[in-house]
Amino acid sequence: MMSKRNIVGIFFFLVIALLFVIAALTTHEFGHPEKSVIPDMDDHIIDNTQTETGANNAVTSVVFDYRGFDTLGEATVLFTAVAGVILLFRRLKK
Amino acid sequence: MIYNIPYFAVAALILIGLYAVVFKRNLIKIVIGITLIESGVNLFLITLGFRENSVAPIHTAGTTEKTLMSLPVPQALTLTSIVIGVAVLALMLSLVIHIYRHYGTLDVRKIKEVDE
Amino acid sequence: MSEMSKIVKTISNIAFPLVLIFGLYVIAHGHLTPGGGFQGGAVVASACAMILVAYGSVWTMKKIKEKHLSLFESVGAIGFIGLAFLGLLFGLVFFKNFLLGEGLIFSEIGQGLSNINTAGVLPLMNFAVGLKVIAGLFAIILVMAYATNKLKGGEN
Amino acid sequence: MDFLATLVNHSPALIIAVPLLGAFLTPLIGKINGKVRNVFVILVVACTSFLIALLAYNVFTNGALSADAVTNNIQTYVFGAKDIGTPAVRIAFEVDAMNAFMALIAAILPLAAVVYSWAFMKDETGQDKYYTLILLMTAGMLGMMLTGDMFNFFVFLEITSIATAALIAFRIDQKYSVQAAFKYIVISSIGALFVLFAVALFYGQYNALNMAVIGDSIKYTMLDKIALVLLIASLALKTGIAPMHMWLPEAYGRAPSSVTVVIIGTTLGSLYAMFRMIFTVYGKHIWDLGKTMALQLPQLLGILLVALAILTIILGVFMALKQSDLKKMIGFAAVAEIGYMLLAVGSAIATISLNESGVTVMTSAGQMALKGGIFHVLNDALDVGLLFLVAGAVYFAAKETSLNKLGGLARNMKYTTVFFLIGLFAVSGLPPLNGFASKLMIYESTYAINPILSIAAILCSILLLATFVKVFHSVFLGPKIPKFSNVKEVPKSMLIGMAIIAVIIIFIGLFPNLIVENIVKPASEALMNYGLYLGGI
Q: Which chains are adjacent to chain C, needing at least 3 Cβ pairs under 8 Å?
């Protein structure tokens, strides 16, 4: 029972599957990110997190200092979701 | 190729999720599919940042001593992406609840029948 | 969700403060150990969710309304963006870490695991985000649980 | 003047931060009083628009307000430090003429929407959350348009899509709006996750997240090709380009009209991101590597985009003919309009080729097509936005949007009728309004590239005009229907909201050259000179 829509769907699905499999094959060797590029940005963060941000935890220094603006966006996403959920479950009549 | 097995896990997660979104008829299964895709992408970010024989990127013994640490940026990105995923999931599930209230079913075909 | 048996209630009463303390610890030590505002906030929110499961959504809704949680969340968000604005005011760049090295609180540079008085605005931001995540996640869970309870005809 | 210069220096950050702070404060201020909250929201949006105007003026004049912030018509802003450092660790905004042009669009639409909402949303519950979400959408849209960081773009994409989905389902008692919202969030979260995967591919290869840095170090590896396919597919999904267009008319049609106006802005934000990815991040592929490759990337990409565009236009126009609901019909017209932009830009990309001296150039027809396409982005946002506001006014007054049941509204709603006429003429490209100016550029340039494209575009435009004339006749003219005999003209705030857009439409229609020379031309040049953007960091 293959409808026309299903065949088109399977075709697109296979194309996308091929993309992801090729991506998995050609990404650098697992555990060795330096095989594709020298990780400048991350090494800079690891070396300077204590002097530049004062934090021992490099991940926290990235989350709140180096990429703090992303975290503002992330907090906003959660705020948006709460506002959205409360909006969806509001009472309709005053 | 044997070194790339984690990436194949990523591809498998994403493709299973995509399969659920495209071919499944139940709205909850579609939602599960999206969370699967999201887990796959998160796993990809984390695996990109792993270095062999490294420790977590936290300085425990002052500034002088140096050890090999895994990359911190992908971990931060994954944290952001997980929170975003939670937000999307919450909103999708509330929409599913409303669809159930209106139609009394979660099956896409039955919803289409009701509409016509 | 209707309320559960006495055993579940008692256990969750015992576990609640422990989970709460652990969550607050994770938030407060975000700049020193693994964790931070989001992770600790999620832990505390799960403690609240445990209470919700044990006592039922109707009981919880009587104790705390989602609009109060929404207010708390706004306060957390304003605290976070306010710290960023203070960076603009004192450090001349938005999101500047203006407390670091100024001799006020959290001004020292991290030297290892022990010193909590480090990292500038990062701990403050952790607290703001923690407050926001606790209130936000709990609000989402509470609202959805209450709504599905009504959907089933309010069997409570 | 010192204060003004400081304000302009910090404006890229403030443009995002002000609506965000406003959104966080709205629930608190809503506790005081509904009117205070409405005034507050309008003030916040007006402030944002003012800041955008300052930033855009500074960028277009290359530093008339604050010379030290701008070099080569690019203003950068780094978060958390004075400069970005040698490895670009921090998030940076990089505003060139194209970003500023898009931000100008985003300055107009939310302002009209919030003014319009005052009366439009008067009787609804949940207004606090409604205004919060509108402000969040505005902030997210502006973030998408201004950011120079790939991951930051993903975050703002998600903010906009979550806020949009919640607002599409605003009328939760109507099952179709809930359904449209669910479709929208499924589509947009898949799109956003593909964007994130592409970002991860870039990160794994170049260890960078900044668009300029990635664009600078990009090679032509297999992973880059996969990332390009994923980026174009996902952003096309979010823009509503055929064959992934089905969510768009539903989302536009089922959302409250004041929300739809802002959704148009977010859709165009995705379109902008697609252009930015193709022209800037993959700029080296298109301009430099193209001459050495056996398979010519620009031609391939251009032909693909043109094919999608033609499909989008035809599908949009013919589906619009069939609709019996006013708002869904305008939604399909919006799909067709997006096709026109893509047609122009796609054919512009297709004309990139080697000239005699071995340099890759875009032909003059291609440059004109690019200008026309970018100009049409502005015009489409205004025209379709005005039409949706009019449709919302019709719904507000008559509580009905079905074309078969409406009729004879022109007698009671004179101003609304005038606004609909303006929108109708503008969207179907009749002189002297703005749609004509940009569509003429598209027709002329595509005729020089390939006459068939131009003819197809003109024919579809005529069909669109016919559809809208039919709609105008059935909604506003015709015999008096007793059910609608007591319909009144909509309140003043809604008229002001429509008038804001209508005045700008007429202004652009009267002085198209002013806009093209001062705003559109720099924007298209910013897209073509990718080197300037890459050198901005």
A: A, B, D
